[in-house]
Amino acid sequence: MIEARSFTKFLFRGLMAPVLTPYSNDGLFSIQEDIIPKYAKYLSSIGIHAVLVNGTSGEGMSMTVDERKAVTEAWAMAVKETKQILMVQVGGACLKDVQELAAHAESLGSDALLCLPELFNKPQTVDELVKYLTYVGQAAPKTPLLYYHIPSYTGIKVSMPQFLAAAAHNIPTFAGAKYTDNNLEEGTQCLAVENGTLSFFLGCDHVLAGAFTLGFDSAIATSLNMLPSPSIKILAAVKNNHSSEALQEQRKLSKAINVITRNGGWVSTMKAAMSLMTPINVGPPRPPLTPLIDKQIDQLKKDLTALQLL
Fold this sequence. Notes:
It is a single chain. With about 300 residues, the chain is of the alpha/beta class. It has helices at about 35-45, 65-80, 95-105, 125-140, 150-155, 160-170, 185-190, 210-215, 230-240, 245-260, 265-275, 295-305; strands at about 15-20, 50-55, 85-90, 110-115, 145-150, 175-180, 200, 220. Helix content is about 45%, strand content about 10%. α7 (about 185-190) links the parallel β6 (about 175-180) and β7 (about 200).
């Protein structure tokens, strides 16, 4: 019998918004740090009590190390007032930079780290992925570390249940994963690893109702930034065994997301929707992502109005 090894736990459960990084709309794409305190207060006011910084939606991989540090510092300062949970995504760079970002986030008192796998010399096995995250964890030995599983972007498709078990036994700070995959069969297997004590966040807005019904209790979903109500209602409905209500809210959410993303990529369209639907103007995406043109924005306004979301 293998002896269980203790690992760091990340105790937050529920809904977390992967925040969008505000850039200037003048062609320079400068980070608008002054918007971040307002952004944090806005999210808090709509019932979002946890944020993920510098993830896919936050375009972390489009920023320099210094810029990522500056954004993290701004959010760390903002959440001191709002009392929100702060998770920082540190991956998507060379390992030395990833370690530097991890150490920096820990020095600011971040509640948890999230990390992508190596994106060029990609790990091919569970052991290689565990080894990579071990290096990251060593740079921030006091902060829970979660793995960012997003195979549609990374191409990394190792067995997640096997990886979670190995990571929990070999990385002292390992605490769980963000699971951005609609393979709920594998996802439910992951929930049982370490007797369900790992933190496991779904990252797919379109399958929240199904995932929560199958036992997921947490999600990191971009739509929480501008359309939090359906996800909040889905989670509550599942907890109260109101499956038909959860399905109804999921359909509303999926319909809205389909309208938002109809004319562009995920981040580009979500940023446009954020600026239209909320008081927080996050500006355009950074190159190489392509912003929506005026005609597309006008169509988005019409579509959102038709859904009574404007």
